[in-house]
Each structure stands twice: as structure tokens, then as C-alpha cells.
## 1
Amino acid sequence: MFNQLADRFDTIFRNLRGLGKITDANIQQTSREIRRVLLEADVNFKVAKAFVSRVKDRAEGTKVLKSVKPGEQFIKIIHDELVNLLGKDAAPLKLGSKKPAVILMAGLQGSGKTTTCGKLAAALKKQGKSVLLTAADVYRPAAIEQLIQVGKTVDVPVYEQGTGDPVVICQSAVEEAGATKTDVVILDTAGRLHVDGEMMTEIQEIAEAVHPVEILFVVDGMTGQDAVNSAKAFAAALKLTGTILTKLDGDARGGAAVSITEVTGVPIKFVGVSEKMDGLEVFDPKRIVDRILGFGDVVSLVAKAKDMVDEDEAIKLEKKLKNATFDLEDYKDQLKQLKKMGPLNQIVGMMPGMNRKMMKGLSLDDRQLSWTEAIICSMTPEERKNPLKINGSRRSRIAKGSGRSVQEVNQLLKQFDQMKKMMKKMGKMKLPKNMNPKMLGLN
């Protein structure tokens, strides 16, 4: 996500950090570079021009603080303006108190709207809400069947009447949800290959008939300025409350995400970050900008870990680490948890200071986790408990059993030994008397 923007801003920031002072000359030069970066990322040219103008105005009026390096101040200005450009604050769903809350999903065909309906249903279900999906796309072949399959995947019921009147279908779905005291109804409306009058008229009629609390425009983040143009058309016809950008796990340049809020006047509420049903993230401008600019995203990283790690298991692991009884079986369990958190490049990219250049130097092959797990699985329970018993002949047997090389087995054992030594040292460390353990998140 935003790879091109991240790479180019990394170069700009390296130059800025060497500045001895902020001058008219380096303000002009940096402004030109930022404008070029944004336009190359397919950001709307009016949005890029306004953004650069705001950065220049703030930089020119900046009073250089003695405690902060000039370059760092310039970087903070860019950071703050990018956050403002993307919407400033996260914009959660506003479902209100009336039930059922109706969410109308709009968008062009091929934007991933139907799948996003399922992802949103899964997210709401996780919050303890009951959800009803509604098949109101009666034009696209197999659209209804696709939503039914999505509903089965996330274990959410789907209301459908076949190829009837979409307005009547949506009204009936809302009545059904009211009768069954369902919390939320998500309407999967029809998409078209392009914006047309018939499409807009139909979706306006649906909105007038069911009074949705949220009208979300689902747009393919890979389409750049086309995404912005279609969003403008929908915003003119409907009272949009937000947008959802899909497919940002691909090679998206980020132009749509950077432009769409300023052009439409409505916030980005969610982004699709994977094809899995849990691959929908709340769009938080500050956290996204932190990722783009290489500042990391510790909040998202902790949230992922919290979702995947069992609390009781975490307590057991903590005791093992303190008592230095952590073995290869425990290591294997941790690898399984890590695999659940998502691709390694995404996880590492959330760590502060990990810029794109550093990540390119790392070997982040997700298959390595499976290979390591296979090596451990080829060991006997006794070998996992006491790796020192693994001699040359045992290493050969483990290598053959796992389909990996003896060299890889040796490498794993060496890494595990180093990790145990490090854990032993950390277990002996004592906090200073004046330091509260809560400061480190230990309590």
C-alpha cells in the first residue's frame, strides 16, 4: 500500500534531515519535489497544488525552535498537512439508536462491493451486532449467488427475492430486519461499468425508500483518478457519508486515497487490505500517514497481535520466558500466531523506522515461516524440549523429514540458541527504582 509515495517521501526526508536552516530556496526545492511525487502517484492535480501551497505557507511562517532541527520541523509540517488532507481523524460508522440501521453500499461494477459487504458484515458481527445482507443487484449475472456465498463465509443471513424490483427488495429486507430485531441491514446495490443516469435514478429511489444512516461509496483504490471522478459523480447524486477504498494490498500508487476526501468532502471510513473476510481496516489518517512516511504504525501492530493472541496462552508464555523454559515447541506455536497476523512485509512495515529501503534489504518470504515450522515438526518431542541433543545424524534425519537442507536446520538451531540467551539476559534485567512498570506496558 502506498509503496511509491513511501519511497519518494523517504528520499525527500533524507535530504531534509540534513538542512542547517529553513530558507526560501530549500522551501521552493522541497515544494517542487513534493508536487512531483504527488502527481506521479496520480493525486488529483488541484489537490496536489493546494497541498503544496499549504506546506509552503506553513514552512515560510515557521519559527525555528532551538530544540528541534530545522529539517525535522519541515518534516512535521508535511506530516501534519498530509494527515489533514486524508481527513484528520478516523470516521467510524454512525449507526444511530434506531433499529435496524441501514447501510447502503454504492459503487461501480468490479470495485469489490459485494465482497466488501461481507467484510463489513463480519466486522459488525465481531462487535456483537446482528446483520442482514441484502441482494439488491439484480442485473449482474451471479451477483445474488456471490452474496449468498459471501454470507455463508461470514455466517450472516442474506435476504434475496431473485430478479425483482431493487427498491421493493430493499424495503422488504428492512421490514424483515425490523421483524427479527436485526441491528444492521447492508444493501448490496447494483453497479455498472460506468456512471449512467439509470443507475443514479435507481439508487436515489432506494435511498429515499429506506432512509439509510450510512451511504458508503465503494471504490477500487487501484484506479487512481478514475476512482476520484466516479466518487464525484456519486457524491453529486447521493448524500454520501463516506467511502471505502478496496484493493489497497496491491500495487496501488495511493493517488485515489490522497485525493478522494478533499474532492468529495466525505471521509474514507475503511480500506480493504486483503482478500480475506477480515481484511477490512478502519481508515485512520494519522496511522496511514505514519506508514507512508516511515514512522511505523505501532497501534495497528498491537491491535493485530491482540486479535490473534490468546490471553491465557500469553500468560503461560510470559512465565516460560521468565523461567527460561521456552523451547522449540513454544517457538512453533509463536510462528503459527505470526502467520495469522498477515504477510510479513505488512507486519514489518508497521514497525517504526522501517523504511522501504531497509525492507528491500530483508528477506521477507512468508514461506520461510512454513519451512521453519516443518523443520520443528520433524523433530521428536524430546528434541524440541532439549535442542542440545540434536547431533549430526539427527540433523540429517530432520532435514530429510522436513524437505529442507541440513544448513537450514543448523541455522534454525543457532538462531534459537541466540534467542534463548537474549531472553535470559532480559529476564535478569531490573527496572530502575523510580520507573513505573506501567510506563513500559508491563502491568
Note: The radius of gyration is 26 Å.
## 2
Amino acid sequence: MGEVAVQYKVMPDPDVEVAIDDLVSSLENMEDSVGKIHNVEKKPLAFGLMYVELHAVVEDAEGLVDKFEEEISNIHGVGEIEVLGMGRLL
């Protein structure tokens, strides 16, 4: 089975007070059997707001990307998750 590279934009939850560096650390240390985190970095959005850009590789099977996104959303402080790019690895 192949793999899929996925790039996410992870926004902090506006209702929860969490430091962006703590969110980056939580995402970097995420334990997951479905995907592998390759790069996590904070990036500026606008007016001092920041978001986290996450690059991961997920097994290419039905429903695994959705499961991976669900596990990301269960991390404390995660608000919206947006897929910025996705592609199959050979």
C-alpha cells in the first residue's frame, strides 16, 4: 500500500487559552499509528495571529486520513484544521 503526504493548517481554538509553542509541541509529540509527523512549525497569519503548519505522511487506505485528522482535532487547543495540500507518494 502507498502513502499520502498531507500539509495541514492548524488553527488554535479561540475559546481555549493555549500558547502557540505549546500547541506546536503537542503536535510534534503526537503518537499515532496511522501517520508520521515530519514537520511542524508556527507561521504568521495576520495582526499578530499565528497558526501551525503540519506536514505528515499517512498510509493510503480508506478512512485513514480522516482518522488522522480526528486525532489532531482531539489535541487540547486545536481549533480548525484545513488541508493545504495532499499528494500520493510513490
Note: Strands lie at 3-12, 35-46, 49-59, 78-89.
